[in-house]
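for the recovery benchmark. tokens below, seq after
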């Protein structure tokens, strides 16, 4: 009886291990589309630039994957890679959240930025990553954006900021976070006065203080299809308005129809569109005698 018990237990254990291995393998290889609910093979999704082949839903992209999509190979030079947030307000669990997201993403903050080329055109670019405290803008993200703008001012290179900051201004840093909205907006005004092009790209989701500052201040504001663009969330707005909002409310398509953004661009066409835009804006400046400052 004892031997039979051990054999039976060992068989169940092996079956359980096999089941867990199969489930882990399935999790590694398959993902469900949040829009059409279809099971999708992960390598296929990666080949299609993180876009669902069934319904064209644009999945969120990691910051470095986004840079790999937009920037010519081996031309990206990162700026301020070591900057990291402190905990000025000693906010509950903030240090733990920073440490957790730094470990899981391999990033020091929610934004990766620097210089590079797009089809040979020199640009300054920054990308926020929703995996890092929802891509929210704290003092470090704001300072990094300010330094990217300064680099554009120094070199005359067009600026591109890609926002996937559903967290908006980071509440864990209080007024230090909110002041970044004014700081980056003032710097973008300087960039505008210097006639250096700035193109903003809004991805899913972009919200709060990011929407209310740099994300909507581009010379041209683009969005990916279906991206949620907002200040307050739908429940808060419906509560204040006392009525339901349209089903497509706060989508890129709704924003385009109501004049909040200028273009919706599919991810497969994003790089070419950005190159065409910054080239056109730069040529327009030269024709008007503004000129573009060159390095050195």
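predicted aa per position
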């Amino acid at each position: 009886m004892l031997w039979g018990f051990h054999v039976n237990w060992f068989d169940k254990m092996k079956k359980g291990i096999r089941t867990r291995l199969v489930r882990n393998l399935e999790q590694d290889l398959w993902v469900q589309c949040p829009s059409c609910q279809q099971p999708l093979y992960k390598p296929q999704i990666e080949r299609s630039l993180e876009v669902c082949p069934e319904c064209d839903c644009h999945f969120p992209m990691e910051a470095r994957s986004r840079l790999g999509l937009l920037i010519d190979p081996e031309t990206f030079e990162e700026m301020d890679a070591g900057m990291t947030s402190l905990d000025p307000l000693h906010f509950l669990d903030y240090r733990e959240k920073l440490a957790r997201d730094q470990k899981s993403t391999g990033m020091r903050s929610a934004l990766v930025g620097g210089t590079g080329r797009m089809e040979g055109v020199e640009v300054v670019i920054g990308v926020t990553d929703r995996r890092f405290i929802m891509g929210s803008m704290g003092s470090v993200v704001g300072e990094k954006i300010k330094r990217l703008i300064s680099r554009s001012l120094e070199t005359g290179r067009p600026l591109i900021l890609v926002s996937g900051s559903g967290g908006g201004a980071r509440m864990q840093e209080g007024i230090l976070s909110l002041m970044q909205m004014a700081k980056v907006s003032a710097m973008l005004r300087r960039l505008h006065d210097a006639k250096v092009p700035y193109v903003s790209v809004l991805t899913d989701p972009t919200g709060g203080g990011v929407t209310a500052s740099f994300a909507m201040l581009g010379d041209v504001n683009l969005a990916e299809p279906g991206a949620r663009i907002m200040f307050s969330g739908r429940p808060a707005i419906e509560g204040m308005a006392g009525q339901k909002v349209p089903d497509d409310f706060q989508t890129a398509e709704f924003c385009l129809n109501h004049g909040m953004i200028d273009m919706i661009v599919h991810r497969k066409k994003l790089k070419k569109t950005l190159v065409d835009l910054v080239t056109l804006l730069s040529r327009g400046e030269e024709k008007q005698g503004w000129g573009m400052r060159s390095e050195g």
